[in-house]
């Protein structure tokens, strides 16, 4: 069984050797050598080889004749082939000789074709490379010319279009590597230009603002000229009325004279010829646009916008910070306003010429900040100002400032409200200034009637003050006006004050009624506070004479009469009728009345003081045994003084002169009585009473003579009635009548007070006791002393009974 399997295995191996490629026979042979029947296999292999050899031999024997025949034919063919070879060689030689020129031509043609191909390739490459080089050259030129935005666009085109088409060349790689550096350089240079631009506009913002404000002023002048021409026909009459009676004021600079159409026309023609440059003419905004475009292309627009706004906010804070001494001069305010206007003119231009760099909300935010800072600065610095002219110039400058910014669309209502607040401050400064003017006029006045020698002098004074008196007009020259110099000067100062108030109210967008109300209220303050205080100052100052007080009363009377002219004057310049409902009335009448009453009281007080000074010279001998036959010297001088004084009162209103005279007589009577009853006078003799009675009679003669006309009968004598009845009672020793009729309306001694009589009687009683120490032993003296004691007792009983 094993031999059969072995034989089958050997058979398989032999078939495999026969059919398998010799390169793969190794594994088959290995299996033979690995087995135990190696010899047996070799025997079978030899047997197989012999079988194949016998088959091959049979095959060769079968085909040998054919092989011989083929060899024979092959030998024949070799000879023919040799001949053919010789022929072919010859033919080839001939062909080679004949095609040599063709080959040379073909070789030249191939070389030309190769050159053409190279040239075409070169042209194609150059076609793609030349734009790169040209664009790079253009880029270099733009960089040298500092045209950075076109350079950036060129750089963008070079990177995205030209370089990819050019291919991989070394110079292209160099260019590609250089592009980021160029971008960075362009960005840095443009930012540097922007910083220079920001620094430049910060330094020149005042010039920009000055130019913008000049433009606004030119425009406003043109508008005013147009309005003036439109209203020239209708306003001619009102201007004429406003100018009546104020010729001298017109020469001094009335606001109406400033609206002369000829001057405006000339100024307008000059302004039209000299065109004021705009902000864009003074500032080159190209750095902003260039930097904006560059950052937009670089994809960093937000960064640029934030940087620009941040820097401008910082500059805004610097611009809005006023100088510490800004309030000293108008130039300080002008420079401050110019910087603010310049700042916002630039922002407004950037807002309208760029898309989104700044927006309306950003500009409005800055304007709100500027508005609050500006108003605070103006309030603070204007409070330091004491010159009303500077405040007026500041107001005009502020109005121009507001008009300029309003022309650019910024809301300015708060600034106008602030100007209305400053109006009160301006009014206070005007009051202080006019207070000095009034006091200076009062100090320089001579308090004498104004002499008028010619008609020209009269017209000159009438131009200052409206004075109408038909009786005075009939008098021949030379003559005197009843008032002194301060009356026309005061009236002119009042009109100048009204003009000053009017100037401030101009261009504040106020109605005529509001302007009229403001002027009237300010004028009332001037009248009731400033002018009243100045008149009180003139009346109350030391060493003021009676003649001066009399002249002050006359002056205030004429000023009071002129108040309705001031009413008409204000109505003419404001075009508001004085009878308008709700119109404020001037308080001038009450002011001058109060001043006149104060002067009258001062006259009364002054007269009384003069009387007291004379009474201090009284030197009575209260123990005189008998009185003299004539009045005391001091009283004679006093009467002479009163006569000369009341002679000056001829120009005063009759009632004032009468009141002054009555007041002086009453004070003289009261003072004489006090002199008689004063505590220092302890004893009074009958002789002293007789001398005192002579002096009182002298006073009564003065009163009876009528030093001031207008008294009815002996009215002035009533001032001395108390003293007269007292002296009659003592000199006539009519105590029985006094005591019997006391309390009756028909009593002869109705004005004698029992207290006064008792006090004087006590002094006479003490005198009798002292001087008649030894006379008590005489019967007459004893009776007299008893009589005095009895009267004293009765007077005391009378006083006690009336008190109970």
Automatic annotation (TrEMBL):
<feature type="domain" description="Exocyst complex subunit EXOC6/Sec15 C-terminal">
    <location>
        <begin position="414"/>
        <end position="763"/>
    </location>
</feature>
<dbReference type="GO" id="GO:0090522">
    <property type="term" value="P:vesicle tethering involved in exocytosis"/>
</dbReference>
<feature type="compositionally biased region" description="Polar residues">
    <location>
        <begin position="218"/>
        <end position="232"/>
    </location>
</feature>
<keyword id="KW-0268">Exocytosis</keyword>
<dbReference type="Pfam" id="PF20651">
    <property type="entry name" value="EXOC6_Sec15_N"/>
</dbReference>
<dbReference type="GO" id="GO:0000145">
    <property type="term" value="C:exocyst"/>
</dbReference>
<dbReference type="InterPro" id="IPR007225">
    <property type="entry name" value="EXOC6/Sec15"/>
</dbReference>
<dbReference type="InterPro" id="IPR048359">
    <property type="entry name" value="EXOC6_Sec15_N"/>
</dbReference>
<dbReference type="InterPro" id="IPR046361">
    <property type="entry name" value="EXOC6/Sec15_C"/>
</dbReference>
<feature type="domain" description="Exocyst complex component EXOC6/Sec15 N-terminal">
    <location>
        <begin position="44"/>
        <end position="213"/>
    </location>
</feature>
<dbReference type="GO" id="GO:0006893">
    <property type="term" value="P:Golgi to plasma membrane transport"/>
</dbReference>
<dbReference type="GO" id="GO:0005886">
    <property type="term" value="C:plasma membrane"/>
</dbReference>
<dbReference type="InterPro" id="IPR042045">
    <property type="entry name" value="EXOC6/Sec15_C_dom1"/>
</dbReference>
<keyword id="KW-0813">Transport</keyword>
<dbReference type="Pfam" id="PF04091">
    <property type="entry name" value="Sec15_C"/>
</dbReference>
<protein>
    <recommendedName>
        <fullName>Exocyst complex component</fullName>
    </recommendedName>
</protein>
<comment type="function">
    <text>Component of the exocyst complex involved in the docking of exocytic vesicles with fusion sites on the plasma membrane.</text>
</comment>
<dbReference type="InterPro" id="IPR042044">
    <property type="entry name" value="EXOC6PINT-1/Sec15/Tip20_C_dom2"/>
</dbReference>
<dbReference type="GO" id="GO:0006886">
    <property type="term" value="P:intracellular protein transport"/>
</dbReference>
<feature type="region of interest" description="Disordered">
    <location>
        <begin position="218"/>
        <end position="260"/>
    </location>
</feature>
<comment type="similarity">
    <text>Belongs to the SEC15 family.</text>
</comment>
């Amino acid at each position: 069984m094993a031999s059969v399997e072995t034989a089958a295995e050997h058979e398989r191996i032999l078939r495999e050797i026969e059919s398998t490629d010799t390169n793969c026979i190794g594994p088959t042979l290995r299996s033979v050598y690995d087995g135990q029947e190696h010899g047996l296999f070799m025997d079978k292999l030899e047997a197989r080889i012999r079988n194949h050899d016998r088959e091959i031999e049979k095959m060769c024997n079968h085909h040998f004749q054919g092989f011989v025949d083929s060899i024979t034919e092959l030998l024949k063919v070799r000879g023919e082939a040799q001949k053919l070879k010789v022929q072919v060689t010859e033919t080839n030689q001939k062909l080679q000789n004949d095609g040599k020129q063709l080959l040379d031509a073909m070789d030249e043609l191939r070389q030309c074709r190769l050159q053409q191909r190279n040239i075409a390739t070169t042209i194609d490459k150059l076609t793609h490379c030349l734009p790169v080089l040209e664009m790079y050259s253009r880029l270099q030129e733009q960089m040298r010319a500092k045209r950075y935005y076109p350079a950036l666009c060129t750089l963008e085109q070079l990177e995205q279009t030209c370089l990819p088409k050019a291919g991989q060349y070394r110079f292209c790689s160099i260019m590609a590597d250089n592009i980021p550096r160029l971008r960075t350089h362009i960005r840095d240079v443009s930012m540097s230009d922007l910083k220079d631009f920001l620094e430049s506009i910060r330094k020149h913002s005042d010039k920009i603002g000055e130019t913008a404000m000049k433009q606004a002023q030119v425009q406003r002048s043109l508008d005013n000229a147009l309005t003036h021409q439109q209203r020239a026909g209708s306003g001619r009459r009102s201007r004429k009325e406003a100018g009546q009676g104020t010729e001298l004021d017109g020469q001094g600079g009335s606001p109406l004279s400033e609206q002369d159409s000829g001057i405006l026309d000339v100024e307008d023609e000059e302004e039209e010829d000299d065109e004021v440059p705009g902000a864009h003419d003074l500032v080159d905004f190209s750095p902003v646009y260039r930097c904006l475009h560059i950052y937009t292309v670089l994809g960093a627009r937000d960064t640029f916008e934030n940087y620009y706004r941040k820097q401008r906010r910082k500059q805004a804070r610097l611009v809005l910070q006023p100088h510490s001494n800004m309030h000293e001069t108008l130039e300080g305010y002008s420079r401050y306003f110019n910087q603010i206007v310049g700042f916002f003119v630039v922002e407004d231009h950037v807002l309208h010429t760029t898309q989104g760099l700044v927006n309306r909300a950003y500009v409005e935010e800055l304007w709100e900040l500027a508005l609050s800072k500006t108003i605070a600065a103006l309030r603070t610095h204007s409070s330091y100002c004491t010159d009303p002219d500077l405040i007026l110039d500041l107001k005009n400058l502020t109005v121009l400032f507001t008009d300029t910014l309003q022309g650019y669309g910024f809301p300015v209502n708060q600034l106008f409200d602030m100007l209305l607040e400053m109006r009160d401050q301006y009014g206070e400064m005007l009051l202080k200034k006019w207070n000095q003017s009034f006091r200076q006029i009062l100090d320089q006045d001579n308090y004498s009637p104004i002499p008028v020698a010619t008609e020209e002098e009269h017209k000159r004074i009438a131009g200052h003050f409206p004075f109408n008196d038909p009786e005075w007009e009939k008098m021949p020259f030379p003559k005197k006006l009843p008032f002194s110099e301060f009356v026309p000067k005061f009236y002119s100062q009042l009109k100048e004050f009204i003009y000053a108030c009017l100037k401030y109210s101009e261009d504040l967008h106020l109605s005529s009624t509001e302007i009229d109300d403001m002027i009237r209220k300010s004028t009332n303050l001037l009248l009731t506070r400033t002018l009243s205080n100045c008149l009180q100052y003139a009346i109350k100052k030391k060493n003021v004479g009676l003649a001066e007080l009399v002249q002050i009363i006359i002056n205030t009377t004429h000023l009071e009469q002129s108040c309705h002219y001031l009413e008409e004057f204000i109505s003419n310049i404001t075009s508001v009728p004085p009878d308008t409902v709700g119109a404020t009335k001037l308080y001038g009448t009450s002011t001058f009345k109060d001043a006149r009453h104060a002067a009258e009281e001062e006259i009364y007080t002054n007269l009384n003081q003069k009387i007291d000074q004379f009474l201090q010279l009284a030197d009575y001998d209260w123990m005189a045994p008998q009185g003299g036959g004539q009045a005391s010297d001091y009283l004679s001088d006093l009467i002479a003084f009163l006569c000369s004084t009341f002679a000056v009162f001829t120009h005063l209103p009759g009632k004032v002169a009468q009141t002054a005279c009555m007041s002086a007589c009453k004070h003289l009577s009261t003072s004489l009585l006090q002199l008689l009853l004063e505590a220092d006078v302890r004893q009074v003799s009958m002789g002293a009473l007789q001398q005192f009675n002579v002096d009182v009679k002298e006073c009564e003669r003065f009163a009876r003579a009528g030093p001031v006309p207008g008294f009815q009968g002996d009215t002035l004598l009533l001032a001395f009635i108390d003293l007269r009845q007292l002296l009659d009672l003592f000199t006539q020793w009519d105590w029985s009548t006094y005591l019997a009729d006391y309390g009756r309306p028909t009593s002869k001694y109705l004005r004698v007070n029992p207290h006064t009589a008792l006090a004087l009687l006590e002094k006479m009683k003490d005198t009798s006791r002292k001087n008649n120490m030894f006379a008590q032993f005489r019967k007459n003296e004893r009776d007299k002393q008893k009589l005095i004691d009895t009267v004293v007792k009765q007077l005391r009983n009378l006083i006690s009974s009336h008190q109970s």
